Amino acid sequence: MGKTAIVTGASSGIGRSIAEVLLQMDYEVYGFGRDFSDCKNITDHRSFRKVEMDLLQTGKLEEEIRKISKGSTIDLLVNCAGVGYYGLHEEISEKNISEMVRTNLEVPLLLCQLLLRKLKESHGTIINISSITANQSNPHGAAYGATKAGLLSFSRSLFDEARKYGVKVTTILPDMTDTDLYRNADFTCSSEENARLLPDDVAAAVRFILSSDPHMTIQEYTVRPQLHRIEKRN
Ligand SMILES: NC(=O)c1ccc[n+]([C@@H]2O[C@H](COP(=O)([O-])OP(=O)(O)OC[C@H]3O[C@@H](n4cnc5c(N)ncnc54)[C@H](OP(=O)(O)O)[C@@H]3O)[C@@H](O)[C@H]2O)c1
Q: Which of 181, 191, 222, 228 to mutate to test the pocket of ligand 1 (most atoms within 8 A of CB)?
């Protein structure tokens, strides 16, 4: 029988590439996002189930997860949805701080809480997409980095809590990847080929993690481009 995955942020960037890889690996994929208009490559696939909603509507999210997990085994949860606002911390609005904390941290915590019993039954896997920023100082991205550090800390604890039940918890820490994440920033990824990652590079990490021998588990996986460069927006 095929496996079932839940992927947040499946409508864009890294999450869309991960969904694509999982479909290639014969998973049935429930992909969460708000706007799938640029996702024909996954939405046309017979094993893709689109869940078009705002993850910050907690009641609706709980209801959707209950509906999905009622009928099927859940083998994989990928927490990938995220949002970033950058600049001097005093200039980041309360609304934007709240959106980052809720999307990048509260939602993954809640989804793990809702799905852990199902994942214990299947000896499943949780993959949390944190960031290289989780391990470093992030001037002009202090709040964003804090949410990613929070997710890494949570993942490390959950790794130890869940491993004895056969559940694997892996955190991926990507460096700058060429996606829409920097739409609110005055900088963006380098356009130099060797100085930025592509969403497919992170999806390849997911494939590697899921293909590794079941007796082992990869706790943290950092992916970086060869060169370190950032580009200022004009
Ligand atoms: N790009 C990088 O350099 C980089 C580096 C390290 C880590 N990351 C992490 O990678 C993850 C994916 O980001 P990305 O780079 O692929 O950026 P992206 O292209 O902007 O994708 C973000 C995804 O999150 C979804 N999302 C955000 N808020 C949502 C909400 N309230 N409800 C439902 N969906 C929501 C978006 O859905 P809609 O577009 O449909 O609203 C989209 O699918 C994030 O957690 C990010 O922090 C990115």
A: 181
E strands present in 2-114:
4-8, 28-33, 48-52, 76-79
SS3 for 65? helix
Q: What is the pTM of this model?
A: 0.98
Residue 22 phi/psi, 5-degree rounding, is -65, -35
Q: What mean pLDDT do residues 122-135 have?
A: 98
User: What is the whole-number distance in angstroms between the Cα of residue 212 and the centre of ligand 1?
Assistant: 26
Give the domain CATH number at 100.
3.40.50.720
Protein residue with its CA nearest to atom 17 in ligand 1: 181
Range of the domain at 39: 4-232
pLDDT at 41: 94
Distance 7 CA to ligand 1 centre (A): 11
**Domains in the chain, number:** 1
Kindly state the DSSP code that residue 96 receives in the 8-state scheme. Answer: H
